Amino acid sequence: MTKDIIAWQNRPLKEVYMNVWMDGIVFKICENSRVANKTVYIAVGLRLDGKKEGPDLWLGKNENVSFGRGVLTDMIARDVKYILITATDNLNGFTDTIKNVFLYSRTQICMVHQIRTRAGT
Questions:
Q1: Rounded to two decimals, what is the model's pTM?
Q2: Full domain range(s) for residue 37
Q3: What CATH number is associated with residue 71?
């Protein structure tokens, strides 16, 4: 990785976000001459001034709660103190993890996942 990428990945974040949308997207990649699934976690934050910014992207083996906890811990290490509302896909246990890390955050299931759940897809 270049110095610029590393600096961007380690940059300080805002202390407060009104809303943070978090999700993981699974990609199939070629790794060591084999096809493997990798998950890219994406977090987009809504700042107090109303502008959206991508707090970051994280690469993991799969979408699971322990890696999600690592993402939240990284955000705290980079100065995030409060997230007022988080929107996620309600990965099993992730809502509780968010509440344990960001005590005052309200959580909600994103609209797309609510619609899919109601439609049974």
A1: 0.79
A2: 3-119
A3: 3.30.420
